[in-house]
Amino acid sequence: MNPLIFTTILMTVLLGTMIVMMSSHWLMIWIGFEMNLLAIIPILMKKYNPRTMEASTKYFLTQATASMLLMMAIIINLMHSGQWTITKVFNPTASIIMTSALAMKLGLTPFHFWVPEVTQGISLTSGLILLTWQKLAPMSILYQISPSINLNILLTMAVLSILVGGWGGLNQTQLRKIMAYSSIAHMGWMTAVLVYNPTLTMLNMLIYIMMTLTMFMLFIHSSSTTMLSLSHTWNKTPLTTTLILITLLSMGGLPPLSGFMPKWMIIQELTKNSSIILPTLMAIMALLNLYFYMRLTYSTSLTMFPSTNNMKMKWQFETKRITLLPPLIVMSSLLLPLTPMLSILD
Amino acid sequence: MLKIIIPTIMLMPLTWLSKKNMIWINTTTYSLLISLISLSLLNQPSNNSLNFSLMFFSDPLSAPLLVLTTWLLPLMLMASQHHLSKEPLIRKKLYITMLTMLQTFLIMTFTATELISFYILFEATLVPTLIIITRWGNQTERLNAGLYFLFYTLMGSLPLLVALISIQNLTGSLNFLLIQYWNQALPNSWSNIFLWLACMMAFMVKMPLYGLHLWLPKAHVEAPIAGSMVLAAILLKLGGYGMLRITTMLNPQTSFMAYPFLMLSLWGMIMTSSICLRQTDLKSLIAYSSVSHMALVIVAVLIQTPWSYMGATALMIAHGLTSSMLFCLANSNYERTHSRTMILARGLQTLLPLMAAWWLLASLTNLALPPSINLIGELFVVMSSFSWSNITIILMGANITITALYSLYMLITTQRGKYTHHINSIKPSFTRENALMALHMTPLLLLSLNPKIILGFTY
């Protein structure tokens, strides 16, 4: 794509999300969402083939439906409160419809069906933008309306998402689908604590974005989209295998890596609010996630998978440049000791 | 406590910056020096703990375990030299780094004051162990072994996290030093039953309890020698240590909640000892013997009498040294014949007489011969379980008999009789191996002269 046009479209995506995050008028938020959606379609279709067309169409249809539901909720809210400012949602029906719309945008169960298929159909870089940047806008709206969300619906969706994200990823060998199911599960964790302490949602979002960015950077670096091609990294760049191991263990939520911090904080917040069974259930279902991350580490870092050549090191023509990888690795694995700093957020 | 932790962390830059011919020398020497520092902790003036800071403390229970941990690192490094000799330098350094990281987490776990910090470090010990087992193990089964190890432990310990946080909400603090003064009786209710279960299951899986022990034979057998040593000697004791700490908060429910686990342990120790009699795999035999000894520790901790606590502590230290030594001996066999089958390497006394002496000593301490500390531990546990219920003496007596049976079976199969003709050409024992066995045996024998230091805080 022409670089100038690509830059313009990317800037529109950024602008759309910024408008959503910074507006106080409901209509502007809706406009921001639409701007975001329309501008990201060409990015999803960077390579022109039927698979990306199918993925972009699915994405467009689900997100457009969600935007329409959002508009309906905004109008019901307008009818009942008489004003367009974002404070809280004044009508329970509007709240339920808005929560469903935002869940569709985020990919929470039962609206998660588009996430694996869309992520699989597009290139790795577009998948990166889809799974990290696109989650910011709906999450910011959820954060702002969090006092008026119906707790039952939100918690049901969260728990089901963690279940689906765990179980769905078990049978996958395509890396993008694995990352998609991981995204569904993490969204579940984030929305579970939204009503109790939205700051923790933002913390989880931050750490999740860092870890997903790291994972995608490592995948892009080895140009691998399946578990099989990822297992050849020990032959190309052995250091990447260690980095993949650390980041995957961090995503699975193992101490002492920083992926444990959001889970710990969320469990603490939920337990403080006297729900004990819920965090136990969530934590145990996160083990399903850990299982397929472990399977990925087994084929990549902890064994030397049979490879296509007998040489010590595979000859390759160019090394892709990976931006920002060292700080990302550090942040996605070593942040746990900084947990006491979270007290500044109170 | 930083005087132990910081040098251990610094062992990592030491390995990465050492030259090729100096890595083993440097790391072994410095880890021996660190273990010398930790010996000063054994000077416990009173039953109250020695507080070094807000975050670390040591008391008569954790000091012997700490000394055992720091003592074991140089031994692990010595034991790994042979099987890593053919690996590239960077992999050797990675292996030593994993061991050092594990050591750091273990030291911090045994000295943690705050129970959540204990939990985080308890889980953190899983990661280096998993990497050691799956990356450097020898057979294909190691992948399955690593998965079993990780998931059994995590399934047990996630409820522990929730339980610890809810206890923190109730009592306001999880600082161990404070809890012992603020302790209140735990009333009997369904939710408190689940709280008890959540707290204890993590340590039961780690010990392991008989029904949840499936991960242990897999992990011990598939791990490389340093992995087996640290698993048997220290990681199982983490479970025992955790149980000893957390049962102080769980009274008086323990008196009736403990019944199923006591039954499982009492029956399980006989079962696992009997399985040892029919094992063909040498490491598997030692692994099941570990389960059996740890079942004794579980019985001791759940009975909660002063004598049983003394027995549990002594048994943990004694079993740590003995089991680690047995694994080293089995490994010396494995390095020569590349097989763990016992009958393939018979009659070794004729070929390696000095090693046969170490085999004899290790087997004798395994079957708890007087006056070794193994006997002190087992005897105290038997006596306290007799006072808890007279009938357990039958099971305990049967267990001691079967333990003697399989230890002697192991000794006689590997050492006595005519040697098999295909092991004519094995290399004689290295000085390193003899030094390893001596370093295991000497503390074991010397401690029988003054067992007071390992008898824990109820002495």
TrEMBL record, chain A:
**Alphabetic keyword roster:** Electron transport, Membrane, Mitochondrion, Mitochondrion inner membrane, NAD, Respiratory chain, Translocase, Transmembrane, Transmembrane helix, Transport, Ubiquinone
Q: Where are the transmembrane segments?
A: 26-45, 57-76, 96-115, 151-171, 202-220, 241-261, 276-294, 322-345
At the top of the EC hierarchy, this enzyme's class is: translocase
Highest taxon listed in the record's lineage: Eukaryota
Q: Domain NADH dehydrogenase subunit 2 C-terminal spans what residues?
A: 290-342
Q: Which residues form a coiled coil?
A: none
Mode of membrane association: Multi-pass membrane protein
One GO BP on record is:
mitochondrial electron transport, NADH to ubiquinone
Q: What is its EC number?
A: 7.1.1.2
**What's its catalytic activity?**
a ubiquinone + NADH + 5 H(+)(in) = a ubiquinol + NAD(+) + 4 H(+)(out)
> Main localization of the protein?
mitochondrion
Q: Quaternary state and partners of this protein?
A: Core subunit of respiratory chain NADH dehydrogenase (Complex I) which is composed of 45 different subunits. Interacts with TMEM242.
In the record, the note on similarity to other proteins reads: Belongs to the complex I subunit 2 family.
Q: Which PANTHER family match?
A: NADH-UBIQUINONE OXIDOREDUCTASE CHAIN 2 (PTHR46552)
For this entry, the protein name equals NADH-ubiquinone oxidoreductase chain 2
Q: Which organism is it from?
A: Equus caballus (Horse)
From TrEMBL, chain B:
Listed under GO biological process in this entry are: ATP synthesis coupled electron transport; electron transport coupled proton transport
Q: What does this protein do?
A: Core subunit of the mitochondrial membrane respiratory chain NADH dehydrogenase (Complex I) which catalyzes electron transfer from NADH through the respiratory chain, using ubiquinone as an electron acceptor. Essential for the catalytic activity and assembly of complex I.
Q: What is the protein's name according to its record?
A: NADH-ubiquinone oxidoreductase chain 4
Q: Please indicate if the UniProt record lists Zinc as a keyword.
A: no
- What topology does the record note for this protein and the membrane? Multi-pass membrane protein
Q: Which GO terms describe its cellular component?
A: mitochondrial membrane
Catalytic activity, as annotated: a ubiquinone + NADH + 5 H(+)(in) = a ubiquinol + NAD(+) + 4 H(+)(out)
- EC assignment: the record states 7.1.1.2
Q: Which UniProt keywords apply?
A: Electron transport, Membrane, Mitochondrion, NAD, Respiratory chain, Translocase, Transmembrane, Transmembrane helix, Transport, Ubiquinone
Where does the UniProt annotation locate this protein?
Answer: Mitochondrion membrane
Q: Where is the NADH:quinone oxidoreductase/Mrp antiporter transmembrane domain?
A: 112-397
Task: Report the enzyme's class at the first EC level.
Answer: translocase
What is the primary gene name for this protein?
ND4
Task: Tell me the protein family, please.
Answer: Belongs to the complex I subunit 4 family.
* Ribosomal protein listed as a keyword: no
Which InterPro entries does the entry mention?
Answer: NADH4_N, NADH_Q_OxRdtase_chainM/4, NADH_UbQ_OxRdtase, ND/Mrp_TM
Q: Give an example GO molecular function.
A: NADH dehydrogenase (ubiquinone) activity
* Residues annotated as domain NADH:ubiquinone oxidoreductase chain 4 N-terminal: 1-109
According to the lineage, what is the superkingdom?
Answer: Eukaryota
Q: Which residues cross the membrane?
A: 21-41, 61-80, 92-110, 116-133, 145-167, 193-216, 223-244, 256-277, 284-303, 309-330, 351-369, 389-412
Q: What is the lineage of its organism?
A: Eukaryota, Metazoa, Chordata, Craniata, Vertebrata
